[in-house]
Amino acid sequence: MGIEDTLYPFLKLYERAPQPLKSLAGRAYRAIPAALRYGAAYTRFQEEARVVEGWDDEAVRAYQVQAVKDSLAAAARAPFYSARFAEAGVNPDRFASLEQLADYPCLSKADLISHREELVNPEVAASQRLLVTTGGSTGVPVGFYLQKGVSRPKEQAYLEAQWSRRGYSVGDRVAVIRGAVTSSRSDGGVSYLDATRNWLVLSSYHLTDARLPEYVRLLNDFRPKHLHAYPSAALMLAKGMTEAGLKLDFKLTSVLCGSEKLSRESQCFLQDAFGARVFHWYGHSERVILAAQGRESDHLYFWPTYGYAELGAPDENGLSEVIGTSFHNAVMPLIRYRTGDYVKLPASRDGEFAMMEVEAVTGRAYEFLVGKNGRRVSLTAVNMHDGIFDGLLAVQFFQGKKGVVEFRYQPGSAWRTERESAMRAGLMEKLGDDFSLELRAVSGVEKTAAGKHRWLISEIREATL
């Protein structure tokens, strides 16, 4: 196992440390060879991601059959899957073709919430498990286990491989505008230097018209090759700069946009505004499947060696749900996991790679909570990964007035009331001091007409982009 997974529990301490201490520790850490930082799996996945782009259909299929079979074998050792497989009359020992996967039952988010511990492979030591939780983009908190020494180095290797399609090289200077909290004060600092990677981390919580010149100055001083941002943050920055007549005095190589949908129109706008190619990808915290745009094509291609992707039957709008089976996670493989995400199939294939190809991932509009002074906080940035939502069945924000937020939460059987204060503190750290927050336990949260969870109910015009 690499140093990265060993130090992961201390990440928040590093982020909260004074900048001189962060810089000293970061430079020392960056001097350690990547193979030692991330572990042996990182090098293996780097090579795998490099060569798979040149594989043909036959090579892809052979890899996937074996990888799916390995995941099914690991899953069958878990009590939940063992019972489900027996009920369905399937046996991983007899798995020989991808078509047979259709005989296996799908796994829902509700299954994952209700049976998390029963989905764990008991033959893998507890010391190899890394618990991750997410509030998701649907308002349904989900917890799951990744495999230490495998899941995170794999993610790093594949992200770097796909970013290279837009000119990224390991060691490049990058400016990041995602979910990092630089200050919980609305007038606090908007940046810090992550010296572990020599990346400039900028707040996605302070992008207001008044502070926009500060962002531009910081970017011009740092002169990154790439901007790595939530699409919503990149759009706020680009639109604000355009309206204010502000410009970068250097040329970006790429704008790297993940974690949210990105429409064709928004991508074109960003490319025009920054004078650099935009790169978009689709993934999720569960690490089941990963898709990214090509080197030339803007269609999304699912990495066939990362996980196995299936598409559900098209709905009335021609959209298909993404169903994924994870690879390389012997702790908790997710088999035919219904992601709740939908994709649009292309009218014609670009065919850049021998991979499943879709035109776009669809989703809701960019959603924001609005502070009393008009500061907008992206719901994507508010998503939690530290367990404060663990034990809740659903969460939802309601806002009827700027700066005032009601957080509705539906407790499950594992929820403990004494954890409410920690949940409040975690939310307020992300919202900041120009918000007041009320917590309210509910028996159920408001849903759409189609029965889907709503992450935000807002009566404020500035809540969408």
Structure characteristics:
GMP Synthetase, Chain A, domain 3, 465 residues, globular, alpha/beta, four-stranded antiparallel β-sheet, nine-stranded mixed β-sheet
Task: Using the 3D structure, state the CATH architecture of the domain at 368-463.
Answer: 2-Layer Sandwich
Let me know the average pLDDT. 92
Report the sheet with the most strands, covering strand number, pairing sense and barrel closure: 9 strands, mixed
Shape: globular
Query: Which band does the percent of strand residues land in?
Result: 15-25%
> How many angstroms does the end-to-end distance come to?
42 Å
Which CATH class of the domain at 368-463 is shown? Alpha Beta
Structural write-up:
The protein is of the alpha/beta class. The chain has a domain at 368-463: GMP Synthetase, Chain A, domain 3, CATH 3.30.300.30. It is 30% helix and 22% strand. The protein contains 14 helices and 21 strands. It has helices at residues 3-7, 11-16, 19-30, 34-38, 40-52, 57-75, 79-88, 109-114, 151-163, 212-222, 231-244, 264-274, 379-382, 420-431; strands at residues 129-134, 142-147, 174-177, 191-194, 199-202, 226-229, 254-257, 277-282, 291-293, 300-302, 307-311, 319-326, 337-344, 357-358, 360-362, 368-370, 376-378, 392-401, 404-411, 436-441, 456-458. The strands form 5 sheets. It has a 9-stranded mixed sheet. It has a 4-stranded antiparallel sheet with strand order 11-12-13-15. A 4-stranded mixed sheet has the order 20-19-18-21, with helices on one face. Helix 5 (40-52) runs parallel beside helix 9 and helix 11 (231-244) packs across helix 12. The protein is globular and about 65 Å long.
